[in-house]
Design a protein that fits this description.
Blueprint lengths: L2 E3 L6 E3 L1 E4 L17 H13 L4 E3 L8 H13 L6 E6 L4 H5 L4 H16 L4 E6 L8 H13 L3 E7 L3 H14 L4 E5 L13 H8 L2 E2 L19 H5 L1 H7 L3 H18 L3 H10 L7 E4 L1
Parallel strand pairs: 3-4, 3-10, 4-5, 5-6, 6-7, 7-8, 8-9
Antiparallel strand pairs: 1-2
């Protein structure tokens, strides 16, 4: 396993991060295809044995059960100081807004709930899951800064944003002496390469780590044409992202399969190695 510093931080992470969206109670959340705790533990334990020390989950993954599975497994198989744990929070709901819960109050509630789920007193990286257009930008950045000041997160990151939003956020943080985003987790793989347009350049200039999600396009880049899986059949969110371009994507997927056959390796290896060379990534990120 190779390791690297995560952007402008002191976090030493494996270049492959274990994404935990596939872990959690399948009856309690958005996805019907997630794996139960017993199988989640097996995967996490195997990852640790192979040198993975970077784990990414979210409070939104199966109503927090992904966090719970991860936290319990890491307590059993790893030392807390030897792993890097990231989790994410979602924007306020309509009901939160109607109740007058501020962005800062929401962030405090979310980090406290995540820490309880994980059974930890802090996370290494706390990620703003998606841009909140209903909350003042200053409120979000100050709320995240408060989390860092309280010792509940060592660093902050952002996910699912545009390059201009990341630049604006870090400019505000610098002006106000708030914690800055040290990583961005965007959708990026061999068949979805939008991050190369502007985000990659910004991150290279400012040494912001890129931790792409869906590196295998929900399994599409790891299976031969015609192969299927429960996730491919049931993941409605991935179908929303990929079905409209399936014909064009099939050209790339077939080429990945061809190269894998020529090299005698898996399609997963071809997909991860090739897309990680496209831009200057920090850790390559994949979702199981």
């Amino acid at each position: 396993m190779q390791y690297t510093k995560l952007g402008n931080s002191e976090l030493n992470v494996s270049r492959i991060c274990m994404g935990c969206m596939g872990f959690g109670d399948a009856k309690n959340g958005q996805h019907s295809w997630t794996v139960d705790e017993e199988h989640s533990r097996e995967i996490i334990k195997k990852g640790i044995s192979l040198g993975i020390n970077f784990f990414d989950t979210a409070i939104g993954y199966q109503s927090g059960t992904s966090e719970q599975y991860l936290g319990r497994t890491l307590r059993d198989y790893a030392k807390r100081e030897e792993v890097v744990v990231a989790t994410k929070f979602l924007p306020r709901t309509k009901e939160d807004i109607e109740k007058g819960i501020t962005g800062q109050q929401h962030i405090e509630r979310m980090i406290n709930k995540s820490l309880k789920n994980l059974g930890m007193d802090h996370v290494d990286l706390y990620i703003y899951h998606m841009w909140d257009y209903q909350t003042p930008h200053y409120d979000i950045m100050e709320g995240l800064n408060n989390v860092v000041k309280a010792g509940k997160a060592r660093y902050i990151g952002i996910s699912n944003c545009f390059a201009w939003q990341l630049a604006k956020a870090n400019a505000l943080a610098e002006k106000e002496s708030f914690a800055k985003f040290i990583s961005v987790q965007g959708h990026y793989n061999l068949i979805f390469r939008e991050e190369e347009r502007e985000m990659a350049g910004l991150c290279t200039q400012d040494n912001i780590a890129m931790t792409p999600y869906s590196a295998l396009a929900g399994g599409r880049l790891s299976k031969l044409p015609g192969e299927t899986s429960r996730r491919l059949e049931e993941d409605s969110y991935a179908k929303f992202k990929y079905d409209a371009t399936a014909k064009q994507d099939s050209v790339i997927i077939s080429r990945v399969a061809e190269l894998a056959g020529q090299k005698g390796v898996s399609m997963t290896e071809i997909s991860l190695v090739n897309f990680s060379k496209k831009i200057c990534l920090q850790p390559s990120y994949f979702v199981l």
